[in-house]
Amino acid sequence: MCNDYLDFKGGFMTKHRTLKAVGFFVVLAVIGAFLALPDSHAGAGKPIRWKATVTGVNLIGLADFTGGVDNVNINNGVLTDPNTGSLYGYIELRVLNPSFRYFMDPSAFSGSPDDHPLYELPYTSTPWPSCIAYFLNSYDQPTEEYPYILLRFTTCGCGNTITDFMKMTDGQMIPVRMSIGFYSHVWGCPASSNTFLNLDINAHGWYKQGTGSDPDIYIQKVGNVWMVSVNTVFDNPAYQEPLPDSASANWPVTLRDSIIGQYATCDPVPGRKGKTTYITTYHYPWAKAPLNFKIVFTKL
After folding, report:
1. Which run of H or E residues covers position 201?
2. pTM of this structure
3. Which of 164, 165, 184, 239 is the most buried (most CB within 10 A)?
């Protein structure tokens, strides 16, 4: 098992409900500096250049994406999970400019009940979980509130012996883990303002129809192309554990395949010299809906 979701955390989020002009350009500068980094290297050789083409029922890429162009970065490589020491391969598409359109049916959603007012997403007052569809369908993504989107596919937790996508044989197909992150802010206490949910769409590919079938989330290599296919309803039986409230901001994405939200509550407690301190509790509502799309990664 590998906890690659930790890569989503860091300086790409803001505490404020809406990214105002000044704050937004600060975020642009930070993200732009990151996106300007060269794509993955094969050893000490020439950097690998990538193109990614997105199509599908639920997710449409409004253009072909080329790594290093127009605030797009496409990376691949092998990382070490700091918790287990195991190796895992990854390939990812990172986008800053509005370039995706999601088409999600609100009636198709199921999930945890709407029992807290902080279940909130931009452009909608619809209760959880159908608010996810209205948020994703309203505008091209990323939005001003969620200025950075990461689509990542890894060998994590899918029973793979392969830990490097570049070493796949021609025609080979393996199940992969999908993570799609929408991050608006860092939760903190005391809360400076009402804030939107962060979202992580997370699922581990598996052979749903048994041996000999295609996995519901897989990557297949053909020549210089690595095609990712996603056709899931988040029902991998190995990842259906409850999502507990936690004092930790680490996402429990290795427990449940679903669309996971994140918010925090702050409980004041008396501190020394009359100062109030806070106990921060992170909450993780979840939802599910059919998800179907493809990304073709082409090595240039």
Report:
1. strand 198-204
2. 0.85
3. 184
Q: Which helix (H) or strand (E) holds 217?
A: strand 217-222
Residue 48 tokens read as 């690998």
Q: Which residues contact 240 (CB under 8 A, 6 or more apart)?
A: 256, 257
Alpha helices, H only, 171-296: none
- Dihedral of alpha carbons 10, 15, 18, 20, sign: negative
Helix spans in 42-180 (H): 131-138
Contacts of 168 (CB under 8 A, 6+ apart): 162, 174, 219, 221, 226
Identify the CA nearest to 167 among candidates 87, 236, 238, 242: 87
Contact between 187 and 16 (Cβ < 8 Å)? no
**Number of Cβ atoms within 10 Å of the Cβ of 243:** 19
Assess contact for 189 and 247: CB atoms under 8 A: no
Provide the pLDDT for residue 3: 66
Reply yes or no on whether the pLDDT at 133 is more than 90. yes
The pLDDT of residue 276 is: 84
Contact 200, 168 (CB under 8 A): no
Structure tokens at 179: 């993570």
- How many C-alpha atoms does 233 have within 13 Å on its Cβ side? 5
Cα–Cα dist 74/297, whole Å: 9
Nearest to 300 by CA among 98, 74, 89: 74
Token pair belonging to 132: 């996810």
* Alpha carbon distance 178, 250 (integer Å): 17
Structural contact between residues 76 and 93, judged by C-beta atoms closer than 8 angstroms? no
